[in-house]
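Example with several molecule types.
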Amino acid sequence: MLEIKNLHARIAEDGTEIIRGLNLTVKAGEVAAIMGPNGSGKSTLSYVLSGREDYEVTEGDILYNGESILELDAAERAAKGLFLAFQYPVEIPGVATMQFLKVAMNEQRKYRGEDELSTPEFMRRVKEAAAELKIAPEMLRRPLNVGFSGGEKKRAEILQMALLEPKLCVLDETDSGLDIDALKVVADGVNALRSPDRAVVVITHYQRLLDYIVPDTVHVLYRGQVVKSGDKTLAHELEANGYADIIGAAA
Amino acid sequence: MPAVQETIDQVRQIDVDQYKYGFETKIEMDKAPKGLSEDIIRLISSKKNEPEWMLEWRFEAYRRWLTMEEPSWARVRYPKIDFNEIHYYAAPKGTTGPKSLDEVDPELLKVYEKLGIPLREQEILAGVEKSKIAVDAVFDSVSVVTTFKEELKKAGVIFMSISEAIREHPDLVRKYLGTVVPQSDNFYATLNSAVFTDGSFVYVPKGVRCPMELSTYFRINEKNTGQFERTLIIADEGAYVSYLEGCTAPQRDENQLHAAVVELIALDDAEIKYSTVQNWYPGDKEGKGGIYNFVTKRGDCRGKNSKISWTQVETGSAITWKYPSCILRGDGSRGEFYSIAVSNGHQQVDSGTKMIHLGKNTSSRIISKGIAAGFSDNTYRGQVSAHRKAENARNFTQCDSLLIGDKCGAHTVPYIEAKNSTAQFEHEATTSKISEDQLFYCLQRGIPEEAAIALIVNGFVKEVIQELPMEFAVEAQKLIGISLEGSVG
Amino acid sequence: MNMQQAIKMTAAESALVDAYTAQIGDLPGDGAVLSLRDTLVHELRTAGLPTRRVEAWHYTDLRTLLRSVPAADSTAFSERVEAIVPGASVLSVRNGQADLKTLPEGVTARSYSESLLDGSAAAGLAVLGADDAIGRINGGLVRGGLEIAVAEGAELKAPVEIQVVQSHGQAHTRFPVSFGAGAKATMIERHLSTSAEPSFVSSVSDVTLAEGADVIWIILQQQGPADTHLGQIRFDLGKDAKLHLFVINAGGKLVRQELHGKASGEGADLTLRGINLLGGDSHTDVTFTLSHDVPHTTSSEIIRNVVFDRAKGVFQGKILVAKDAQKTDAKMACNTLLLSDDADLSAKPELEIFADDVQCGHGATVADIDHTQLFYLLSRGIPEKKARAMLVNAFVAEIVEELEDDEALVEALEGVISAWLEKHA
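Resulting structure tokens for the full complex:
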């Protein structure tokens, strides 16, 4: 589903190279964890995948279902099924969460040549998904992410993921700032979305989240490259021994 | 950033190039010759069968106007207006006082249909349940028709053109006209006092809550015609009225002058809510043509615990110069000003409000949202003052500007004047652009750039949109280039 | 005779023009300077002092407010006073006469009258614009002052106090001060009077900061209750230069303090802090403009006004962001405590913005002492008068505390504030 080949990317403004020859393949149905110390390029990878203009790809390619997506803008990638759950969800004052959801869902449908959702149908879907994630209807009337607690923000991200039904989900440090109960709710939400035709990339610094979202593969990112890959036991190894051994071997 | 250019293009499309109200209507017109003189004023007055006192009032204003100078303090630039190149009176032939809709020129009705004005009562009834709007439509200089007159009459509400009111309710007009905006107030108000041609008059008697929204649509059609309407609204003790004003004009290469005066008077415990969606032709993308909108609007909270609220959505006009204000004279009175001003192309906006606190325990609230794009300049200018005796005066002002593109300017010029130690004023202003983070977040959710910008701008102005009556809110959102197909509950 | 000369001059306008006429031949300057003086005084005579119709003087109608101007008196003399911060070097100008005794290392100075005589002062005498009444009066009549240079890389250990002491009559002084690249200094520009007789003082400081200079500049205005003080500081901030401008007004009858600056090098940063202690029948106007001319400059302004008695306070602040000055970050706040029913405060905090990628904001508040806070103190047994004084003091003192790196300085300024409050509150 996702194939990243020798990817090099840098910050557009100052030319600092962050991703330096990264290779990664994620199959449909797979949950891949990307782990790495601070500054290894984890968040940059999520931005480059989703098409943020502040980063430039200088070499290599990103194939999504066999096609390069480098020429697509962020909205087109999203409409094709790529979803990024943000580490720091953005506040948009004055725009009710509900309104935002509707615009996003319908714009994506429009891009794919589908009819817009009727209002009752839209409402039904939102209510169902919100109930699953224990999100109060009142929260949906509030402006997007404005004044939400850390846990509410992350749940709102998962709610969007559930409603937009993406094919490739990228979760950027979704566990940061969550207490254990919120973490479980979020993990349940993600697990509910696991399916043979959907892939999930979980970016995380800690192993903790992976107790709840159990990965099929684990990749260690360091200095913009995948330096080691393995199965879920690799995550436990990292938890026990830290990154030093692997980094030492790579350096 | 590429977003900027695209946004500029998008907003420009909505507001400038595709000015959809820019059609011209071919109707036979009755026009006064160009220029201004006592003869022209006499002609206007006689066309309207005005009583002698009205003519005298006009002359007085005219003589004063001759001694006045055009104001120059606002942040607007335009070539000198030749006041002798303007027609001060233009009326569709044979429409002085139609008795019913059947007597109105069908061409004219078509114009209003195109504008989307629910002129025909039955259409309104069929269209919107529980929501009726009485409309007074002003075409160039003449009020064409006022709907729902009968029903309003039952409630005791007088809603008619000011020309009719001068004839039919001279006592009320004489008592209140010019008492909020004196003849000598400013250059354009004085000019208006001399030559005003039509406008609306509303009187809501004691204790009456006006049963429906009242509305006036203004349209300038004729070439080189100035429009000088005059609106006078009086809410007697305990009365309530909500009044809506909409404006359009055809596309023209020449600039046209619009110099209106609006006076509101709220007596004890009365409330007036005045909303404007101003969409005069803004000129083309090179800045050619467009309306000069030099308007004086002022409300007088004359009675205790009275309230006046101005809401405006300003998207049109080449130049906007207007400061809907409140004189908070009555103890416990309250003034509000909610404004959205969008400028694009070469538009210039210098707009804001004045809140003059005179009485005790008066309060005011100002929320202004300016959005500047293209080559435009968008200035908020506002005054808040508390006089010596205005004990416990309270003001809150929030004034935010959003810049789209790097060729435009956004300016904030507040004047804060406190002469009473019990006054509490709070003023906040910000200027920023749409954040990259917000934009990327929307894009990542599959919302294309233009739609994302519209969405964020919509959020930016929401506080003000909420103040508009429902019918206008929808139109306003369209005008600002935002689709709010929300089922937001 | 042109039309403008038909304006009838006020007593103050005549006095200023007369002061000039009386001193012709005596005022220092070479040909260029003298002809510039002539032009400036001619403009003053024809345009008159500004009225409220001039936007920049909207709240300070100088033509009406300035009733009289004392005659210039070349014999007026006053003693040099102690430096406000112990250990500071004092460069003084008394009754317009420069007195250079103690120059710290890294600082060079000469009397400004020398610059007038050799003509090097001519360029700096130009007014900032048609509304620059202070520049005009000062340029026409300036006599003394100091031209100071702080050397590149110099780091001054102790503050330098520029002291303008006046007993009566008129003083028109100028201080062109340049700070070399990387220079670090604390300057105190202090204006005081030594008698109750009225003085009329105009003073213009022209300050430039080269790359990376880091300067604290304090203006301490403590003139007498009958004095008129027309002050102006012009500053230009080079690349990565940092200016912490601190203005305290604690005196004077009619005061206009103008602060006009340009952030003209990337990375330049201005911090402006102002404390206006206003009482009696005084009228005090602080007018500030800052132009962010290049990208990546920052500024932050906080003004605190405390207004007692029948005093009138004015703050006008304008932040201008030029077309290409992207990434500007500018925040301005003006907070006022109105403490008497006859006190009066007008504020006009303006933003004029021509670049889109900026973060700019301003806030203004006017209020009485916070009643909840007051009640809290009362409930703890603190008498009302004391409680009020504490709250007023806290309102202004928190700004002074920002200068915590220099304890002696903080102590000195707090001393000025509490002495003033004791006298007026």
